[in-house]
């Protein structure tokens, strides 16, 4: 029987897509087929402990100083005590950069297999997902000699990622765009890559009726308000500031529109958001971080879901919206264009020339106005979204792919 060890970081994964990914990954792994152990860092515990829950073992590490991936010597000692090197072992890693951590695992567990899942690249945030700029930077990397520049930081990160992917037995990417980047820019061999889009298990939360008056009243929504929702970390890379600017254009034409922003932000980001949104204070609602039940409640009452990101490795939020039949507006950012087809399961707002921000903002505003005035198109998007979820993103497909991956190692 294979032994599956999954590394997690408790604090961050509660708030980001890695946490959702791990929940779905565990749904894909049957405890009757595998011995499963979660290795959790910065857990809510005062001392190292091992517990068992629902046939899954958990190694819980208390909060460590600094980045847990840099505490290699401390972690090594514990792993040596409780894990025996074995060809049946597979380590799943999800946090980056972790080159030294993978090297350490290779050293103490030479017989075991290592799988790394890409949830983000190091260049996407500083370059706002601009693949063309990244490709040019890598081509001309020898010309950047100043260590203190953004370009040098990206190049160094790229070199570390490249070595990391080579050290792993298999690297999982979640979108065709990321697969192409690995092959063409990171020069990773085909047999070291697995393309496995995430799947999502159908929620036990039942939406009995869309746009329910009872739910709307509970959320203090006015009867005639049109509700737009966006879900995720409200950052520039996620396109949230462009969406706020687009709302200014929308509200010049339609006044009964409210944008609801669901997601957690640090103090500085939240201050910037408040400043940007202050002219529209009565038309924008910030909810902060919500649990799944509350998010689905908002989805059930929303008229449109908006995914304005410049880049997504994989958009779980988009799958949830598709699963629940919410009409979607999405950007054509890296990764997202693999998930959404214009006028099939979303209305695409093209980013266009990144140096002319008004182009994207106008495209977002026009898409919003078009869908608000097109109930037939919204119904079509909703129908095809549910169909595509069932055909591509239901968890049964993810489960089959991981079964094949494990068998191949």
Could you explain how this protein is built, in words?
The protein is α/β, with parallel strands linked by helices. Helices cover 42% and strands 17% of the residues. It is built from 16 helices and 14 strands. It has an eight-stranded mixed sheet with strand order 3-4-2-1-5-6-7-8, sandwiched between helices. It has a six-stranded parallel sheet with strand order 11-10-9-12-13-14, with helices on both faces. Strand 5, helix 4 and strand 6 form a beta-alpha-beta unit. Helix 9 crosses helix 14. The longest helix is centred in the last third of the chain and has 19 residues. The radius of gyration is 22 Å and the shape is globular. The two termini are 13 Å apart. The model has no long low-confidence stretch (mean pLDDT 91).
Distinctive features:
alpha/beta, 409 residues, eight-stranded mixed β-sheet, six-stranded parallel β-sheet
Please summarize what this structure is.
This protein has an eight-stranded mixed sheet with strand order 3-4-2-1-5-6-7-8, with helices on both faces. The chain is built from 16 helices and 14 strands. It is globular, with a radius of gyration of 22 Å.
Q: What topology does this entry show?
A:
Blueprint: E1 2-9, H1 10-13, H2 17-28, E2 34-41, E3 49-53, E4 56-60, H3 72-82, E5 89-93, H4 99-108, E6 113-117, H5 131-139, H6 150-167, E7 170-173, H7 176-184, E8 193-195, H8 213-218, E9 226-231, H9 240-251, E10 257-262, H10 267-277, E11 284-288, H11 292-301, E12 304-307, H12 316-323, E13 328-331, H13 336-339, E14 347-349, H14 357-372, H15 375-393, H16 395-408
Parallel strand pairs: 1-2, 1-5, 2-4, 5-6, 6-7, 7-8, 9-10, 9-12, 10-11, 12-13, 13-14
Antiparallel strand pairs: 3-4
Helix pairs in contact: 2-16, 4-6, 9-14, 12-15
């Amino acid at each position: 029987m294979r032994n599956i060890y999954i590394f997690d970081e408790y604090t961050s994964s509660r708030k980001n897509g890695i946490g959702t990914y791990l929940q779905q990954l565990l749904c894909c792994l049957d405890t009757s087929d595998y011995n499963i152990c979660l290795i959790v860092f910065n857990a809510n515990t005062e001392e190292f402990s091992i517990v068992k829950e629902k046939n899954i073992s958990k190694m819980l590490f208390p909060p460590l100083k600094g980045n847990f991936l840099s505490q290699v010597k401390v972690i090594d000692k514990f792993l040596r005590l409780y894990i025996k090197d074995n060809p049946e072992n597979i380590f799943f890693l999800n946090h980056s950069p972790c080159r030294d951590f993978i090297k350490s695992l290779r050293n103490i567990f030479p017989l075991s297999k290592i799988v790394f899942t890409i949830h983000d690249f190091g260049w996407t945030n500083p370059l706002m997902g601009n693949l063309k700029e990244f490709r040019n930077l890598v081509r001309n990397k020898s010309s950047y000699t100043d260590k203190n520049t953004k370009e040098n930081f990206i190049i160094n990160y790229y070199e570390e990622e490249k070595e990391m992917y080579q050290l792993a037995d298999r690297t999982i990417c979640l979108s065709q765009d990321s697969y192409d980047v690995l092959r063409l820019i990171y020069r990773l061999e085909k047999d070291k890559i697995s393309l496995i889009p995430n799947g999502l298990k159908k929620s036990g939360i039942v939406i009995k009726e869309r746009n329910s008056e009872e739910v709307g009243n509970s959320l203090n929504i006015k009867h005639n308000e049109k509700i737009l929702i966006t879900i995720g970390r409200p950052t520039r890379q996620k396109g949230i500031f462009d969406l706020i600017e687009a709302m200014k254009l929308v509200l010049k034409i339609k006044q009964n529109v409210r944008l609801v922003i669901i997601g957690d932000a640090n103090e500085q980001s939240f201050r910037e958001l408040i400043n940007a949104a202050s002219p529209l204070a009565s038309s924008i609602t910030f909810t902060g971080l919500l649990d799944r039940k509350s998010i689905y409640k908002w989805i059930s009452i929303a008229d449109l879901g908006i995914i304005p990101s410049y880049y997504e490795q994989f958009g779980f939020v988009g799958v949830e919206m598709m699963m629940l039949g919410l009409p979607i507006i999405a950007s054509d950012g890296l990764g997202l264009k693999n998930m959404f087809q214009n006028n099939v399961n979303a209305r695409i707002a093209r980013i266009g020339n990144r140096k002319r921000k008004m182009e994207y903002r106008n495209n977002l505003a026009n898409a919003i106005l078009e869908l608000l005035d097109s109930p037939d198109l919204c119904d079509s998007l909703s129908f095809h979204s549910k169909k595509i979820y069932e055909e591509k993103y239901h968890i049964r497909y993810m489960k089959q792919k991981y079964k094949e991956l494990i068998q191949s190692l």
